[in-house]
Amino acid sequence: MERRRPHDLVRDAIDGDLDAIERVVDQWVDRLYAWCARLGGPTVDAEEAAHDVLMLFVRRHATIREPDRLGSWMFSACRRVVANHRRRAWWRRWLPGPMVERGSPATMDQDLDDAAQARRIRAVLDAMSVNDREVLTLCYLEETSVAEAAQILGVAEGTVKSRLFNARARFRDQCRDLLGDGP
């Protein structure tokens, strides 16, 4: 049996093969969920946002011209979907109704301290510009290489390195201001 390359699978999905589309969706669901969670922050339902990105892929797969650009297409779609979800979350703040806090209550002091610090660090990330948050998410949280991040973001590797250098400095300064000594 001939082994198929990922490029072939993506090409088949772009050409409308329903099995290939389903396999691409299965391959991308976890990564998209992680991107949505990290880019969207606590105000965005990451599962719903990832579902929206995947539905966008299912509806618009034929618009992808190059199979090797699927990662860039997915990340770009993810950015747009998360931005839309964040806007909706902002509007929901002003609508009447109770706010529900997600997560289970921590019972030990250390858990509370860790959760509080994680919220403060998340607040720093949420306050950063989209470009800073994207490059930090891809290079540090997702552990992609500079070359992969450049392809996904559709920019030169030097641009990723520059953004990463500046984003790290801003993140470090903000954490120092917020936490005292920073990470």
Q: In words, what does this structure look like?
A:
By secondary structure, the chain is an all-alpha fold. About 75% of the residues lie in helices and about 0% in strands. The protein contains eight helices and no strands. Helix 3 crosses helix 4 (about 70-95). About 25% of the residues are buried.
What labels would you give this structure?
mainly alpha; 183 residues; 8 helices; single chain
The largest β sheet comes out as: none
Shape, please? globular
Query: Cα-atom Rg, whole angstroms?
Result: 19 Å
Number of strands: 0
Helix content: over 70%
Strand content: under 5%
Rounded mean pLDDT score = 79
> Helical element count?
8
SS-based class: mainly alpha
Order of helices and strands: HHHHHHHH
What is the subunit arrangement here? Answer: single chain
Task: Give me the secondary-structure topology.
Blueprint (H helix, E strand, L loop, with lengths): L5 H9 L3 H23 L5 H15 L9 H25 L14 H19 L2 H12 L4 H8 L3 H23 L4
Sum this structure up briefly.
By secondary structure, the protein is mostly helical. The protein contains 8 helices and no strands.
